[in-house]
């Protein structure tokens, strides 16, 4: 799939590893110990829920596995993210909070994975699967869409313009979530751009 190990951008690996590390710290310290600064920005007060942090952890690891040649692990991590999205969406639909809280954090009704976050993970998993299949144009297209969409969602949530504009489907994404999506999609763009055939 990749020309050689030197063709993998060190910056892409750094972005993916940073996403994994931040998600791990958000789970362990942010939700585990209760350090709010890792999971909630003061301007929005919307938290990055544990399911979202776990999704970033698995997606970032999936990208690292894909670029290192561990295809089975990458596919398994993609499946884990999709299962997490399905469980979370089902929990929201029927009002079951247990899968959203991931059994260790007591969340309020408003503190659930936002639909726009679920959509972002679906895009990221699709891009990872296209990367594994060698369809780099699809990866780059999805990456560009994600990189350009993440700051827009962040700005709309931080400024409160979502309610004014009637864009409720974009509501609920934390600032941290938007930043991590921007990092992840940037890493996908870099991997695809550096591995296109000459």
From TrEMBL:
This is Intracellular septation protein A. It comes from the Bacteria. Keywords: Membrane, Transmembrane, Transmembrane helix. The chain crosses the membrane at residues 12-35, 47-66, 73-93, 144-162, 168-191. It comes from Sulfitobacter sediminis. The lineage of its organism: Bacteria, Pseudomonadati, Pseudomonadota, Alphaproteobacteria, Rhodobacterales.
């Amino acid at each position: 799939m990749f020309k050689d190990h030197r063709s993998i951008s060190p910056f892409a690996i750094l972005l993916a590893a940073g996403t994994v590390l931040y998600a791990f710290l958000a789970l362990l310290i942010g939700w585990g110990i209760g350090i709010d600064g890792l999971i909630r920005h003061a301007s929005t007060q919307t938290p990055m829920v544990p399911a979202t942090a776990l999704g970033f952890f698995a997606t970032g690891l999936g990208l690292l596995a894909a670029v290192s040649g561990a295809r089975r692990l990458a596919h398994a991590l993609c499946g884990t993210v999709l299962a997490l999205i399905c469980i979370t969406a089902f929990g929201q639909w029927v009002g079951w909070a247990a899968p959203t809280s991931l059994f260790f954090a007591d969340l309020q009704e408003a503190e659930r994975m936002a639909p726009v976050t679920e959509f972002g993970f679906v895009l990221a998993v699709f891009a990872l699967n296209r990367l594994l299949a060698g369809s780099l144009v699809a990866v780059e297209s999805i990456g560009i869409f994600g990189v350009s969409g993440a700051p827009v969602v962040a700005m709309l949530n931080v400024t409160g313009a979502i309610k004014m504009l009637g864009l409720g489907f974009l509501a609920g994404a934390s600032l941290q979530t938007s930043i991590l999506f921007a990092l992840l999609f940037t890493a996908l763009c870099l991997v695809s751009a550096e591995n296109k055939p000459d």
